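RECORD TYPE: inverse folding
INPUT: structure tokens
STRUCTURE:
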């Protein structure tokens, strides 16, 4: 669906992205208890998100995956990945929603953000395999985001909406 890079990135500079930057969801592949590709909604416009559930279902794994993405914490592939090898390497891909008025991207970043965001706002179920549960969850989540944006008398074009993927060197 999109490319991943191996290792770190300087794409996100704290001085360029303001307080309205929000992680709305995360795609996880083969990270801890998450096998294959999973889409996990985080928020549609809340200042507080909590995960509640039984032990071992993946609450901490979500936070640890984000720690791996942002802070370079160690990768924790699931047991399938450990035994079958790199062709199914884990990745973490947070999905960002950023108010365009709150960022100061460089010209190159602006071009990349515009292309990525346009694709993820406009991609339809027809263009991708909606039979994949993670894609169905993505489209449902995007629909909820659009409702919240309209409630604020704004449009999707006022926001950048895109995932950024970091893949393990596994």
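DESIGNED SEQUENCE:
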């Amino acid at each position: 669906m999109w490319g991943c890079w191996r290792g770190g990135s300087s794409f996100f500079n704290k001085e360029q992205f303001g307080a309205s930057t929000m992680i709305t969801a995360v795609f996880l592949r083969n990270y801890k208890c998450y096998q294959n590709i999973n889409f996990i909604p985080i928020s549609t416009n809340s200042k507080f998100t909590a995960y509640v559930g039984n032990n071992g279902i993946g609450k901490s794994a979500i936070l640890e995956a984000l720690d791996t993405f942002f802070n370079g914490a160690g990768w924790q592939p699931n047991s399938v990945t450990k035994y079958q090898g790199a062709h199914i390497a884990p990745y973490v891909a947070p999905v960002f929603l950023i108010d365009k008025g709150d960022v100061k991207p460089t010209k190159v970043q602006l071009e990349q953000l515009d292309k990525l965001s346009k694709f993820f706002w406009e991609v339809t179920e027809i263009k991708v395999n909606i039979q994949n549960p993670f894609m169905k969850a993505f489209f449902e989540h995007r629909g909820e985001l659009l409702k919240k944006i309209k409630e604020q008398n704004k449009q999707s074009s006022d926001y950048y909406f895109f995932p950024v993927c970091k893949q393990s060197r596994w």
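NOTES: The longest strand covers residues 22-31.
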